[in-house]
């Protein structure tokens, strides 16, 4: 990888990302319904530090301050999610105007600062009322999701640049239903398959419903992806890497872009474990205006027992995720060869690392290094012809990291949860200055 400062195109969009349950708090205010994450966090033994998102970063009340802070980072755009039960408490039927008002005020504030909005419809907080009827295992949930999507598009479509249906359906299916680490806490591999199919189906239905509103917002989906690297060049390791890639990346990409599940993945599973109607693929395979890619690390595939672990030459984060920037290049170039892709946004990329507060400065050098290396890797992919339009750092601020609670910090802004004080970490200052320098260089070229 070159150490040269990359030069991103003039129109490249710089951003930061968050999600509703992780930052908003105000979990029981202004008519918000309960979500499966409220239920999950209030169940003993599910979250490492026994914390909840009841208050989180109190963003619901501090959104104006937060928008001012993110605008101060000089970013072009902000990716956030709408809490479905905040705007439709039961996931069907009545809308909650107070919930819509909150997002409307947030959008006003972003517009006032000239920051573009990128909205995600589903970042894991399903209304508990729908879970009580089977949640994503119930095919009816897909129709409810499409109605919710259309309502959001009607109300906000003119005020946002993009709307993504789902964030990381792989996580909802596998971590939420396959191994039970995430809400709703089910541990059943067959359920994970059925849920992944219903998530894809709901994505297709939602795109159709949103398009029917005539919205100008660009529509897409956000997938978490990682290339799978074989631990050695043994045939067994190479086969294992291909299988892992089929089960994670291609499992979601193939239905959307090719209209079927990958054969290599189907061979590994019990097909009778889930119901797929033939016409579903016609629904799922809607043209996308953009694809969001979340990248954190690679999968390291070893067929040995015990499996070899990745060399992690650049270290690991507090999540124990290997820092592997070249995986971003490998992933994007691979996708570009395999699929006819729409424009891509890197909708998440970031590192959990404990910071040190020294003389009022929040030092987090590993995070700055992580971002710098991944931007170089992104630049390398773009030089290979991959059409990437923007990059969102995950996350704007430290927040509720799901089953890891508040122990893992991904933010550019440090959050002192006792006082809710936000402060800029060194990485935030670096990111701000990097964006400024990129803009200046682009102006000079023009
Ligand atoms: C993503 N995995 O989650 C989510 O979109 C964010 O809400 C989250 O805070 C961020 O990444 C950091 O974790 C993931 O186990 C969770 O592979 C788990 C995995 C991947 C992504």
Automatic annotation (TrEMBL):
<feature type="binding site">
    <location>
        <position position="167"/>
    </location>
    <ligand>
        <name>substrate</name>
    </ligand>
</feature>
<protein>
    <recommendedName>
        <fullName>Beta-glucosidase</fullName>
        <ecNumber>3.2.1.21</ecNumber>
    </recommendedName>
</protein>
<keyword id="KW-0119">Carbohydrate metabolism</keyword>
<dbReference type="GO" id="GO:0030245">
    <property type="term" value="P:cellulose catabolic process"/>
</dbReference>
<keyword id="KW-0624">Polysaccharide degradation</keyword>
<keyword id="KW-0136">Cellulose degradation</keyword>
<keyword id="KW-0326">Glycosidase</keyword>
<dbReference type="InterPro" id="IPR017736">
    <property type="entry name" value="Glyco_hydro_1_beta-glucosidase"/>
</dbReference>
<dbReference type="InterPro" id="IPR001360">
    <property type="entry name" value="Glyco_hydro_1"/>
</dbReference>
<feature type="active site" description="Nucleophile">
    <location>
        <position position="348"/>
    </location>
</feature>
<feature type="binding site">
    <location>
        <begin position="401"/>
        <end position="402"/>
    </location>
    <ligand>
        <name>substrate</name>
    </ligand>
</feature>
<dbReference type="Pfam" id="PF00232">
    <property type="entry name" value="Glyco_hydro_1"/>
</dbReference>
<dbReference type="InterPro" id="IPR017853">
    <property type="entry name" value="GH"/>
</dbReference>
<feature type="binding site">
    <location>
        <position position="123"/>
    </location>
    <ligand>
        <name>substrate</name>
    </ligand>
</feature>
<feature type="binding site">
    <location>
        <position position="22"/>
    </location>
    <ligand>
        <name>substrate</name>
    </ligand>
</feature>
<dbReference type="InterPro" id="IPR018120">
    <property type="entry name" value="Glyco_hydro_1_AS"/>
</dbReference>
<dbReference type="GO" id="GO:0008422">
    <property type="term" value="F:beta-glucosidase activity"/>
</dbReference>
<keyword id="KW-0378">Hydrolase</keyword>
<feature type="binding site">
    <location>
        <position position="394"/>
    </location>
    <ligand>
        <name>substrate</name>
    </ligand>
</feature>
<comment type="similarity">
    <text>Belongs to the glycosyl hydrolase 1 family.</text>
</comment>
<feature type="binding site">
    <location>
        <position position="296"/>
    </location>
    <ligand>
        <name>substrate</name>
    </ligand>
</feature>
<feature type="active site" description="Proton donor">
    <location>
        <position position="168"/>
    </location>
</feature>
<dbReference type="InterPro" id="IPR033132">
    <property type="entry name" value="GH_1_N_CS"/>
</dbReference>
């Amino acid at each position: 990888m070159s150490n040269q400062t990359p030069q991103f195109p003039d129109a490249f969009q710089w951003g930061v990302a968050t999600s509703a349950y992780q930052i908003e708090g105000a979990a029981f205010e202004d008519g918000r319904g309960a979500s499966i994450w409220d239920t999950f966090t209030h169940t003993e033994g599910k979250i490492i530090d026994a914390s909840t998102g009841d208050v989180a970063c109190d963003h619901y009340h501090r959104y104006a301050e937060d928008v001012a802070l993110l605008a101060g980072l000089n970013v072009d755009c902000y990716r956030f999610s709408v809490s479905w039960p905040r705007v439709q408490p039961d996931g069907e039927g009545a809308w909650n105007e107070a919930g819509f008002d909150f997002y409307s005020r947030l959008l006003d504030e972003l517009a006032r600062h000239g920051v573009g909005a990128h909205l995600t419809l589903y970042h894991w907080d399903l209304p508990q009322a729908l879970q009580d009827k089977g949640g994503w295992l119930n095919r009816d949930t897909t129709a409810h999701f499409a109605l919710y999507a259309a309502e959001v598009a009607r109300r906000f479509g003119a005020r946002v640049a993009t709307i993504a249906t789902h964030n990381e359906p792989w996580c909802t299916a596998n971590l939420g239903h396959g191994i039970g680490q995430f809400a709703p806490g089910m541990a059943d591999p067959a359920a994970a398959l059925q849920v992944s199919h219903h998530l894809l189906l709901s994505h297709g239905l939602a795109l159709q419903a949103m398009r029917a509103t005539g919205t100008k917002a660009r529509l897409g989906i956000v997938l978490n992806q990682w290339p799978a690297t074989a631990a050695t060049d043994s045939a067994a390791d190479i086969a294992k890497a291909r299988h892992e890639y089929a089960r994670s990346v291609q499992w979601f990409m193939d239905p959307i872009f090719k209209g079927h599940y990958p054969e290599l993945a189907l061979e590994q599973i019990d097909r009778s474990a889930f119901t797929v109607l033939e016409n579903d693929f016609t629904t799922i395979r809607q043209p996308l205006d953009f694809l969001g890619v979340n990248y954190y690390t690679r999968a390291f595939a070893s067929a040995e027992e015990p499996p070899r672990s990745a060399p992690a030459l650049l270290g690991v984060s507090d999540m124990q995720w290997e820092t592997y920037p070249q995986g971003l290049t490998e992933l994007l170039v691979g996708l570009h060869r395999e699929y006819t892709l729409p424009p891509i946004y890197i909708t998440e990329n970031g590192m959990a690392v404990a910071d040190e507060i020294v003389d009022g400065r929040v030092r987090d050098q590993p995070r700055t290094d992580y971002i710098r290396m991944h931007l170089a890797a992104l630049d390398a992919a773009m030089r290979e012809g991959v059409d990437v339009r923007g990059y969102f750092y995950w996350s704007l601020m430290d927040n509720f990291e799901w089953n890891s609670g508040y122990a893992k910090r991904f933010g550019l802004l440090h959050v002192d949860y006792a006082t809710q004080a936000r402060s800029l970490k060194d990485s935030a200052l670096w990111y701000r200055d990097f964006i400024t320098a990129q803009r200046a260089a682009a102006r000079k070229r023009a």
